[in-house]
Amino acid sequence: MSQLWEYAPAPESRDIANLKPSYKMFVDGKFVEGSGEPLKTINPGTEEVLAEVSTASPSDVDTAVKAARRAYDRVWGRMAGTERAKYIYRIARLIQERSRELAVLESLDNGKPIKESRDVDVPTAAAHFFYHAGWADKLPYAGYGPDPRPLGVAGQVIPWNFPLLMAAWKIAPALATGNTVVLKPAETTPLTALVLAEIIQQADLPPGVVNILPGAGDIGAALVEHADVDKIAFTGSTEVGKLIQRQLAGTGKKLTLELGGKAANIVFDDAPIDQAVEGIVNGIFFNQGHVCCAGSRLLLQESIAEEFLEKLRVRVSTLRVGDPLDKNTDVGAINSREQLTRIQELTAAGEAEGAERWTSSCPLPDKGFYFAPTVFSGVSQAMRIAREEIFGPVLSVLTFRTPDEAVAKANNTPYGLSAGIWTDKGSRILWAAQKMRAGVVWANTFNRFDPTAPFGGYQESGFGREGGRAGLEAYLDV
Amino acid sequence: MSENRISLGKTETRIPVAKTYKLYIGGKFPRSESARSYPVTDSKGAFLANAAQGSRKDARDAVSAARKAFAGWSGATAYNRGQVLYRVAEVLEGRREQFAAEVSAAEGVGAKKAQALVDTAIDRWVWYAGWTDKIAAVLGSSNPVAGPYFSFSTPEPTGVVAVLAPQQSSLLGLISVVAPVIASGNTAVVVTSQDRPLPAITLSEVLATSDLPGGVVNLLTGRTAEIAPWLASHADVNALDLTGAPEAIRGDLERAAAGTVKRVLRVRGGEDFGREPDIGRLRAYLETKTVWHPMGV
């Protein structure tokens, strides 16, 4: 079998990323040296240092917020929507033009396979700007009254799993609605956000409209606490989300949170099995499982469980783990040593609690952070691997007998970001979708993202939506 | 073209190449099959060019091209249509000066006013480009029916739309009536302003080089009163925009349209195209489709 699947390596050239030895933060239209301790960002696929990045200090946060406030008061907040739209369209076009460079840089800094950064992250980021550009001069039609107003300065903190895409999800709607932005990218993945800053400069946006401050969690906290920020948007862990919600209590600042998840992917006995196997694989191994909406709990109807697991293992064993820049790679590198340790710790807990572990015997590179795709069966709802977000290429398989039981198990979580349903019966899809306590429900597909489709969670997966008409609310004073 | 004449006598001045203005059908630029043309003059009566005088047969060819393009254009994703239409705006911007000169000649307005009209026309096109992937979210609905059914309604393009473009506003008016037709996935057969057709023909050159599939927009120059009745009665036309219809035949056109129950937009040409429109022109060419599906284990 392995003989059948030999591929020659097909690596993207690292030169395409135009990697620079050092990167600066972007404040008030200029790239400036931050007064924080510079950080070294590494390639998780090789553990080599990619570049040195200057970081912000709390006083830099204040400078950036002041610049954003000035830009809001003097230019952006009062600019006609028609004109704002044209700036945002420019950003969309520049991302499209520099898409290959951005894709390679993203894979270098994040570790995700190039085919994903190339086919998902970058084009979806461009689409987000394109879509929201069109809203800038149509806000009276969005359903928030005849003349909905912006909030002011938006502070945005984003995670490392989709660095450029999350920046787009945050910046595009904020700009379209007339807000200005101070954004903090994740500590381990600052590079594409800083190239986006370059693009924003090329698009000739007025200085201060977008400011990008690399840094660690303390800079995110300083941004959240800053008295002159009107709105906070955070994507990241539920733990930090709760902290932010507490911090903002009583301040009157508007908050949206997109947090963790432990999504159930339910496969009924009448599902198209091969299609479902592909979807389950995509649902958990896409982006190494570093996806808040990943289908990390597989719920199999008992009558097909054995057959399904067999097919699933065969399929997972063909996944190619390795060099993120290789176009044949299916699963790339875990983003950081810290994350790898967490995945190892949770999988060890799964074994200790008595789940049956199966791990693909695929070869792993000697250097870099890698974790072989792993499937746990015989998982019970009480186990940590059924309750906690692993954020890695690890699938926990549970079984059910009746549709009601499937729904009960799927909803048995404090999270509520997404869910998957696999069945050939349309009425059952709609029934189950209605029962799911989750913000996004995919049926016979998984991990679909589109700027027109609102995304966000129920319960402890956060509140507020990104994308679509609903997503505009997060940045409007309504 | 007036400056061309001035230079004719001066041997040291280069003689410009004059353009032949033709129809735009199915992505191609044919002359009228009738081999007729008519002189187009500027606002002071000076000769600008000959335009093709479209015939009944040209109109039929245009409808057939529009029908052929409908499946692909209406079936394209809204995102794709938005990208294509935005591309049109980019190419329009590149011809800003040319359009300003043509609008100035056609409408007899000064250079500054002409430029402002062109700028508004480009922004108008961008405005409609942004609607492609939003109109469904604004006009569609999920219907909370009283039963175990999932029901939703979604706007869909009506089909081939015949547009009688405004007679006065040669570019801004034209764009304001054409863009909403195609933004939602319809295809168009447009009869341009009869006496001011040249900016429309230049627009067709922009459309032909902007990734817009051939046949999505077809432009006919000629006598509006001659061509319009054939479009109004054509069985393969789904909707008719009377904006530029001569007053005397509006009733006849509406009656002819009843033959195949066409949707008729009865706006008169006097509207102020400089003002930002509402979504009335988008709505005019949309059907609402309601889908039901049972819900249950």
Describe it for me?
The complex is a heterodimer of chains A (478) and B (297). Chain A has helices at residues 58-74, 81-97, 99-110, 114-135, 163-176, 191-202, 217-225, 238-248, 273-285, 302-317, 337-352, 384-387, 403-410, 426-435, 468-472, and strands spanning 22-23, 25-27, 30-32, 39-43, 48-53, 153-157, 180-184, 210-212, 231-235, 254-258, 264-267, 297-301, 356-359, 374-377, 394-400, 418-422, 440-443, 462-463. With 478 residues, chain A is an alpha/beta fold. In chain A, helix 12 links the parallel strand 14 and strand 15. The longest helix of chain A is centred in the N-terminal third of the chain and has 22 residues, at 114-135. The radius of gyration of chain A is 22 Å and the shape is globular. The mean pLDDT of chain A is 97. With 297 residues, chain B is α/β, with parallel strands linked by helices. In chain B, 42% of the residues lie in helices and 18% in strands. Chain B is built from eleven helices and ten strands. Chain B starts with a helix and ends with a strand. The model of chain B has no long low-confidence stretch (mean pLDDT 95). Classes of the chains: A alpha/beta (478), B alpha/beta (297). The interface between A and B is medium-sized, with 28 and 23 residues.
Question: Short summary of the structure?
Answer:
The complex is a heterodimer of chains A (478) and B (297). Chain A is of the alpha/beta class.
How are the SSEs ordered, and which strands pair?
The complex is a heterodimer of chains A (478) and B (297).
Chain A (H helix, E strand, L loop, with lengths): L21 E2 L1 E3 L2 E3 L6 E5 L4 E6 L4 H17 L6 H17 L1 H12 L3 H22 L17 E5 L5 H14 L3 E5 L6 H12 L7 E3 L4 H9 L5 E5 L2 H11 L5 E5 L5 E4 L5 H13 L11 E5 H16 L19 H16 L3 E4 L14 E4 L6 H4 L6 E7 L2 H8 L7 E5 L3 H10 L4 E4 L18 E2 L4 H5 L6
Parallel strand pairs in A: 1-5, 6-7, 6-9, 7-8, 9-10, 11-12, 11-16, 12-15, 14-15, 16-17
Antiparallel strand pairs in A: 2-3, 4-5, 10-18, 13-14
Chain B lengths: L1 H7 L28 E5 L5 E6 L3 H20 L2 H17 L1 H12 L3 H19 L5 H5 L1 E3 L5 E9 L2 E5 L7 H12 L3 E5 L6 H11 L8 E4 L3 H10 L5 E3 L8 H8 L5 E3 L14 H4 L2 E9 L3
Parallel strand pairs in B: 5-6, 5-8, 6-7, 8-9
Antiparallel strand pairs in B: 1-2, 3-4, 4-10
Helix pairs in contact in B: 2-9, 3-5, 4-5, 5-7, 9-10
